[in-house]
What we know:
9 helices; 204 residues; globular; five-stranded parallel sheet; Rossmann fold; two-stranded antiparallel sheet; alpha/beta; Arc Repressor Mutant, subunit A
Amino acid sequence: xxxxxTILVVxxxxxxxxxxxxxxxxxxxxxxxxxxxxxxxxxxxxxxNLSIDIVISDWRLPDADGLxxxxxxxxxxxxxxxxxxxxxxxxxxxxxxxxxxxMGYFPKSLEPAMLVKIIxxxxxxxxxxxxxxxxxxxxxxxxxxxxxxxxAGKTNKHLARDLGITERTVKHHLTAVFERLGTTRxxxxxxxxxxQGLIQLPRH
Length: 204
């Protein structure tokens, strides 16, 4: 049976939080959903539960800046995918999120059906930003790790063991990378990634 993805939603407004949880229940892969009202609760959840795969946080939390919280989480555990949401359409946010290593950013005004599509993509390792939706250079930290592993000659099995994930997850990430770079073979993918400056070949 496939492993379930666990998503932590950090949002202090009950109406939007409950609405978002209802939307996320429509995601095809049926993720496990947890919630926190603020940054302090989110930290407690993360400290007590090591199985969180994705954190989606509001930008304006009552006790913290949501972007700073996600940066903090990334430093503690870079394997957790992070996404910011905001009710303010600030054009700087997408850029700030990319610079912080986040997998995505979405405005709260987004249509539910689109959000379901974005979250399913996120679970499959596919980043999403409003202004960079088709940016072929947009790779997640995990996808970059896998690309570097392929360049070093590692198999899917070795990558899964080294990164602490399943082979199925490695394949999901590889498929997303192939689609983003327009490739179908591992060697071709590594070559194009090097050409575009996404990775460097390992020195022997």
